[in-house]
User: Fold this.
Amino acid sequence: MEENLFEAAIARVKKKIEPKQFQIFDCYVRKEWPAQKVAERLGVNVGQVYLARHRVGALLKKEIRALEKSAH
Assistant:
């Protein structure tokens, strides 16, 4: 159940943000690349990597809470 909830939240967040932001988040958080590698590969600075992680992470938490409420 947890995995499905997370994937559903990811799908919803993906529609709300810039593709580049999601790509940064995906590489840094889900693929566990070092921030420097993400920055180099995606042509952004390290600060943008941390910012994307923070913003997308916050949106994900919000979506997960919303999905949990609608499931009960």
Notes: The chain has one domain: 2-71.
